[in-house]
């Protein structure tokens, strides 16, 4: 079967930068999710420069939420005039669209308002499009826990996060979030470095009780299911498992299926134990699990999270994809561990920036 979706997980320090192309008759439909830290812009820039000058277009750019490790590389992209990049739509929830405290209403953006003007205060004469698929209003799952976006010549996108409630929380927190962003900080406290644990009994590790992610910015993350020609990926940003779980359950009910099997699952919040829990993994069983982080500051991915992935009920030869090759990530390819859990682990090739996955088209997927 031909390749339906190509997925590149670029090096983005502790953050995300995903380059996704869906095969079409003409040029591919191109999606960029997040831009990593400000220091990751050169890697994204080189990837854009590898495109022919006449094809430097993103059909959709998604800035999942307002955190330095997701938004950093995006500001240079939007301010850049030399590369000749154009945009079909840009999804980002900024202060103008967040629900008002009393009415809960969201408003549409005005002429000239953009992500760059919002974050830099510099007015733009030709601002990129903003939340066009949502009539300029907030990107939100609204009242039904999910929204399906179907546009001509687009893959099918099922929005799973954020909810109106999470956006209302972000509104209260906006000024603090902007200050954290300007300092390049996150709400979470950095984790002190600890010696790497030996990986053995993953069932026991997976069952370790853990708290949940409480970062307001992470809770406002845009996350969605992308489906094209029978291939699919779940792109979870840094979303809460509560929000993703409720949304996926609603999709399961609407489709009258048992679960939502996907080819690839970009684990939420860089494989944090506060976001990756067993019931979420069971709702969207995947063949490939993507971990985007260099482990900086927060020690992601958590061993507990990946233990949950590999011990998921019904898992058959799951494949782990790491976009950084380091000692912590290499522990997952230990022979004894692979013999016990039957998984595979992939790392970037020495000459390659990040990792690449190709998802094949398929006629129909059994749930
Ligand atoms: Zn993040």
Describe this structure as you would to a colleague.
The chain is of the alpha/beta class. It has a single domain, classed as 4-Layer Sandwich (Metallo-beta-lactamase, Chain A). Helix content is about 25%, strand content about 20%. The protein has helices at about 40-50, 70, 75-80, 115-120, 165-180, 200-205, 215-220, 240-255, 280-285, 305-310, 325-330, 335-340; strands spanning about 5-10, 20, 30-35, 55-60, 60, 85, 90, 145-150, 155-160, 225-230, 230-235, 260-265, 285-290, 320, 345, 355-360. An eight-stranded mixed β-sheet has the order 8-9-10-11-12-13-14-15. A six-stranded mixed β-sheet has the order 7-5-3-2-1-16, with no helix packed on it. Strands 4-6 form a two-stranded parallel ribbon. A hairpin with a 6-residue loop joins strand 8 (about 145-150) and strand 9. The model has no long low-confidence stretch (mean pLDDT about 90). Bound molecules: zinc ion.
Which terms summarize this structure?
single chain; 367 residues; alpha/beta; Metallo-beta-lactamase, Chain A; six-stranded mixed β-sheet; 12 helices; 19% strand; globular; binds zinc ion
State Rg.
19 Å
C-alpha termini separation = 20 Å
Q: List the total number of helices.
A: 12
The total of beta strands comes to: 16
CATH class membership: Alpha Beta
In sequence order, what are the helices and strands, one letter per element?
A: EEEHEEHHEEHEEHHHEEHEHEHEHHEE
């Amino acid at each position: 079967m031909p390749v339906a979706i190509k997925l590149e997980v670029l090096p983005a320090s502790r953050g995300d930068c995903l380059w996704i192309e869906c095969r079409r008759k003409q040029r591919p439909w191109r999606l960029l999710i997040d831009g990593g830290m400000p220091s990751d812009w050169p890697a994204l820039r080189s990837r854009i420069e590898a495109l022919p000058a006449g094809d430097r277009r993103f059909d959709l750019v998604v800035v999942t939420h307002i955190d330095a490790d997701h938004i950093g590389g995006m500001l240079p992209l939007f301010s850049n005039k030399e590369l000749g990049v154009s945009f079909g739509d840009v999804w980002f929830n900024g202060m103008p669209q967040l629900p008002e405290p009393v009415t809960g209403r969201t408003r549409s953006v005005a002429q000239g308002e953009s992500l760059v003007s919002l974050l830099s205060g510099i007015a733009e004469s030709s601002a990129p499009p903003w939340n066009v698929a949502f009539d300029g209003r907030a990107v939100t799952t609204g009242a039904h826990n999910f929204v399906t976006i179907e546009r001509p010549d687009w893959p099918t996108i099922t929005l799973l996060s954020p909810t109106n409630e999470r956006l209302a929380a972000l509104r209260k927190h906006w000024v603090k979030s902007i200050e954290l962003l300007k300092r390049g900080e996150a709400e979470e406290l950095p984790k002190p470095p600890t010696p790497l644990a030996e990986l053995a009994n993953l069932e026991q590790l997976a069952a370790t009780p853990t708290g949940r992610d409480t970062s307001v910015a992470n809770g406002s993350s845009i996350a969605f299911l992308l489906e094209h020609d029978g291939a699919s990926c779940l792109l979870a940003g840094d979303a809460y498992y509560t929000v993703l779980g409720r949304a996926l359950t609603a999709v399961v009910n609407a489709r009258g299926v048992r679960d939502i099997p996907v080819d690839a699952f970009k684990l939420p919040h860089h494989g944090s134990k506060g976001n990756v829990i067993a019931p979420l993994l069971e709702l969207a069983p995947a063949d490939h699990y993507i971990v985007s982080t260099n482990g900086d500051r927060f020690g992601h991915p958590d061993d507990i999270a990946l233990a949950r992935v590999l011990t998921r009920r019904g898992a058959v030869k799951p494949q782990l994809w790491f976009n950084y090759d380091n000692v912590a990530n290499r522990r997952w390819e230990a022979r004894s561990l692979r013999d016990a859990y039957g998984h595979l682990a992939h790392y970037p090739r020495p000459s390659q920036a990040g990792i690449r996955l190709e998802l094949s088209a398929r006629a129909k997927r059994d749930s």
